[in-house]
Amino acid sequence: MLCGVTLVATGCGATAGTAVPNGDEVAAYLSAKFSDTLQKLSDSLGENDTRKSVQDTFARFDQKKINSTISAVQLGHPPARLSKNHSNQDSNEYLDDFHPANSPVEYLLLGPVYASLAPTHWVSMPYTAGDYNECYWAGAHDICKVLGAIDDSVTKSKGARSANSKPDGSIQLTADVTMTAFLDNSVITFPDSILEQIGPEMKTKSFSATLTLDAQGKLTDLTIAGTATGDGHEMEINEHYRLDGTPTENDLPKVPDPADVTVLPDRTAVDDFYARMGEIQDR
User: Fold this and answer.
1) Which domain of life is it from (predicted)?
2) S-S: 185 plus which of 40, 76, 99, 148, CB 3.0-4.6 Å?
3) Phi and psi dihedrals of 235, rounded to 5?
4) Rounded to an integer, what is the distance from CA 102 to the centroid of its chain?
5) For residues 119 and 117, what is the distance between their CA atoms, to the nearest angstrom?
6) Which of 224, 50, 250, 215 is nearest to 139 (CA)?
């Protein structure tokens, strides 16, 4: 178990009330605890546990904004997966990704903003993720990028700030996430027009991240937030992931009627589809 670390440490080889060494030794201690916990968390994401989650994303660069929510369900072994990515600025902009358990195809429900991409409400495409862990799934892909940024900040930049255990056995970790790690892990995918405006001054800034894991080591809550200024620009970030109860079959849609599905049979068709989607998103 990861011990509480503030001014003193208890357990895990330390005597109750023994002061933790200061300076670099504290940073090394926290970094080791973070790395161990993040590795266990990464391993758990490969186990495809049943879960239901919500991730809210808000990002602002000067006056340009992203504001969306991903509601995700993973149920059963092998899992059926549903990821609903909905804009909070335009109710007509959404994409629902559904992969029935063991299905050779996955389905994508197109919101009205994307209606020009196909003559039907749904498209299907070959399912190529195979046995990949959750980080290859739309419902967890973004949160894995946040964890990657935290890990890079802890291991490369001594970003770990605190690690505290609570009476219920849960653990709370806090860290500073560098702008470099945030961008390198594409926590939020910014267009080149914005990336080109992020200069050396803003790249020295960081965001604050807080992770909460339950007594079994399952991630239950994660936030990364903050405002960074520099080079005449301002970036505001607020991401919040949390578990959202226990999923059931009622949370999953039925397999779409074939008459309402446009089939994308191969990689060429899929690549063309996403290229056209990108043009809509860049407008």
Assistant:
1) Bacteria
2) 148
3) -120, 130
4) 24
5) 7
6) 50
| Dihedral angle computed from the Cα positions of residues 21, 22, 25 and 29, in that order, rounded to the nearest 10 degrees | 70
Strands 233-243 and 261-263: unpaired
Residue type, 268: T
> Domain extents for the chain?
22-47+139-243
The pLDDT tens digits of the residues spanning 214-257 come to: 888 788 999 999 999 999 999 999 999 999 989 999 999 999 99
Joined together, the tokens standing for residue 158 give: 């001594």
DSSP state of 5: B
Coil/strand/helix, residue 148: helix
In 3-state terms, what secondary structure has residue 194?
helix
AA letter at 171: I
Phi then psi for 182, rounded to 5 degrees? -60, -45
Q: Which residue type, as a one-letter code, is found at position 69?
A: T
Residue 175 β-bridge partners: 160, 209
**Which tens digits make up the pLDDT trace of 4-54?**
322 223 333 333 333 334 445 555 656 666 666 666 666 666 566 788 999
- Sequence-ordered list of residues with C-beta below 8 angstroms from that of 139, at least 6 positions apart, any chain: 53, 70, 72, 73, 74, 81, 82, 83, 97
Any bridge partners for residue 215, and if so which?
none
Cα–Cα distance measured from residue 230 to residue 118, given in angstroms and rounded to the nearest whole number: 42
